Amino acid sequence: MSIQRLNKFLAQRGICSRREADRWIEAGRLVVDGETATLGISVGPDSKIALDGKDLILSQEKPKRIIIAYHKPVGVESTQDPDNPRSIDKALNWNGPRVFMIGRLDIASEGLLLMTNDGDLVNPILRSSENHEKEYVVVFDKVISDQQIKTMRSGVDIGDGDRGLTKPCTVERLGGNRIKICLTEGRNRQIRRMAEAFELRVVRLKRVRVMNILLENIPKGEWRYLTKKEELTLLELLGL
Question: What dihedral angle (degrees, nearest 10) is formed by the CA atoms of 85, 88, 94, 98?
Fold first, then answer.
């Protein structure tokens, strides 16, 4: 194994995503060869790595890629904290190698959440500059007007300061208070904050698609492996 950045090394070994590794480093949870890790640190084949004081047992080879599609119910938190009874790790009936989330859904939202052991997939799917689509069905507490839909499509100020308006998106009316919205970015609680800008309240939010992967008939709380065709198409879209 050549010298690699710590976050890349952990992602390729199915421990976490690169983003999660950086969060662990910033929190002081990772130690390399007896020293607290810093952002950008590199590791070699003989490096000893510990998380929260426990040595990580790491394969020198990248494991076989796993991608699953999970239907997250309302009430399950997008966290993998073993001490949190509402975490995905508690809710997911999974006995295989460790998998982690590609993105998040807030506790009041439901729908499609992709999970994988391949950390190299996470950033390409989530990065706003890549313009990969995530589609949601949203129900508001009252009727949304045509003008509000038009403004949503062109961009909304949700109070993110220097980040400016939300990116243009596709919005389709499904009924008086129901829309389908397709985003290519994922700001924190973005759809709920877009609604609040129009004094609307989201009463139901369901993610139904991530790129070419559809939620379709996955029951709440259940998961399935991606088909070979789905995985190949996903990798092609990501340029991997």
Answer: -110
Question: Angle 218-207-82 (CA atoms, 0-180°, nearest 5)?
Answer: 75
Which of 106, 120, 146, 162 is labelled catalytic?
A: 106
The span from the CA of 193 to the CA of 191, in Å, is: 5
Q: Strand pairing partners for 224?
A: 69
Q: Is there a catalytic annotation at residue 83?
A: no
Other C-beta atoms within 10 Å of 228: how many? 8
**For the whole model, what pTM was predicted?**
0.81
Do the bridges between strand 4-5 and strand 213-214 make them parallel or antiparallel, or are there none, so unpaired?
Answer: unpaired
pLDDT digits (tens, 9 = 90+) for 80-138: 887 889 999 889 988 888 888 999 999 999 999 999 988 888 888 998 889 999 999 99
